[in-house]
C-alpha cells in the first residue's frame, strides 16, 4: 500500500528495503521525542547520585515480549540492592515478585514521571520495533540496560550510553555495575540524552518528513 515506506528505525528500514525490492521508495524517519515536554518533567526531579535507595525499573505492558522472565530474574537476584518498579503492570498482577512496585496502566506523562524517578532503566524486550519507552528513558538521562536485539542495538551503543545484554545473568551483571558506580550512571545517562537530541528530536524528524514529502512530490509531478 502507498507510494513509499517511512521506517521508524534502522532495522525496519533495512527490512523494508529487502522486502519492497524496487517497487517502492524507502525512507528512514526515526521515532520522534518531544524534548521540551521531557525537560519539563525532568526539571521537576532532583538528580540522584547516591548508591543507596537506587530505583531500577521498566515501562510497558506486562508480557513475555517485554522480557518478563528476565526482569523477574534480575529483580530477584538484586532485590536487596535496589527498589524495583514496573510502570504499566497491573496492581494485582501475580507474575512479578511481591516486592516489585506496580503502577497500573497510567497516562503517559504520569508514566514519564515514574521513569524520571528511576536511576537505571532496563528494557529486556525479546522482540520490538523501536521503543518509545527506551528513547524517553534515554532522553531523561537514564542509563539503560537492554536485551541484545537489533532495534535495541541500533539505539544503545554498548559501554557508551548503556549496556546490551545477551541473557538475564549478563543483564544482572550490568545492572549491578551501574548500581555501584554513580559516575558511570551519570556518564551513560548524558550520552543517551545526546543520542536522542541528535537523532530523535521532534524538530529533526519533522525536517526528515518534510524532505520525504518534497522528494515524493517532485517524483510524482515528473
UniProtKB/TrEMBL annotation:
GO terms for MF: glycosyltransferase activity
InterPro entries noted in UniProt: Glycosyltransferase_grp1 (IPR050194)
Keyword Transferase: yes
Matches recorded under Gene3D superfamilies: Glycogen Phosphorylase B (3.40.50.2000)
Keyword Cytoplasm: no
UniProt KW keywords: Transferase
Entry protein name: Glycosyltransferase involved in cell wall biosynthesis
Amino acid at each position: 500500500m502507498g507510494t513509499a515506506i517511512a521506517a521508524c528505525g534502522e532495522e525496519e528500514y533495512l527490512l523494508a528495503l529487502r522486502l519492497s525490492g524496487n517497487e517502492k521508495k524507502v525512507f528512514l524517519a526515526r521515532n520522534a521525542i518531544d524534548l521540551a515536554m521531557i525537560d519539563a518533567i525532568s526539571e521537576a526531579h532532583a538528580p540522584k547520585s547516591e548508591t543507596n535507595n537506587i530505583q531500577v525499573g521498566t515501562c510497558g505492558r506486562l508480557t513475555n515480549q517485554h522480557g518478563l522472565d528476565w526482569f523477574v530474574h534480575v529483580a530477584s537476584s538484586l532485590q536487596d540492592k535496589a527498589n524495583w518498579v514496573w510502570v504499566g503492570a497491573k496492581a494485582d498482577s501475580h507474575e512479578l515478585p511481591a516486592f516489585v512496585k506496580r503502577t497500573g496502566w497510567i497516562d503517559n506523562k504520569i508514566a514519564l514521571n515514574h521513569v524520571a524517578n528511576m536511576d537505571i532503566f532496563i528494557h529486556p524486550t525479546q522482540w520490538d520495533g523501536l521503543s518509545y519507552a527506551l528513547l524517553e528513558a534515554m532522553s531523561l538521562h537514564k542509563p539503560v540496560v537492554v536485551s541484545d536485539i537489533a532495534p535495541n542495538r541500533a539505539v544503545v551503543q554498548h559501554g557508551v550510553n548503556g549496556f546490551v545484554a545477551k541473557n538475564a545473568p549478563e543483564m544482572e551483571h550490568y545492572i549491578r555495575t551501574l548500581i555501584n558506580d554513580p559516575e558511570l550512571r551519570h556518564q551513560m545517562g548524558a550520552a543517551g540524552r545526546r543520542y536522542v537530541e541528535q537523532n530523535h528530536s521532534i524538530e529533526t524528524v519533522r525536517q526528515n518528513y518534510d524532505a520525504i514529502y518534497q522528494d515524493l512530490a517532485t517524483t510524482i509531478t515528473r
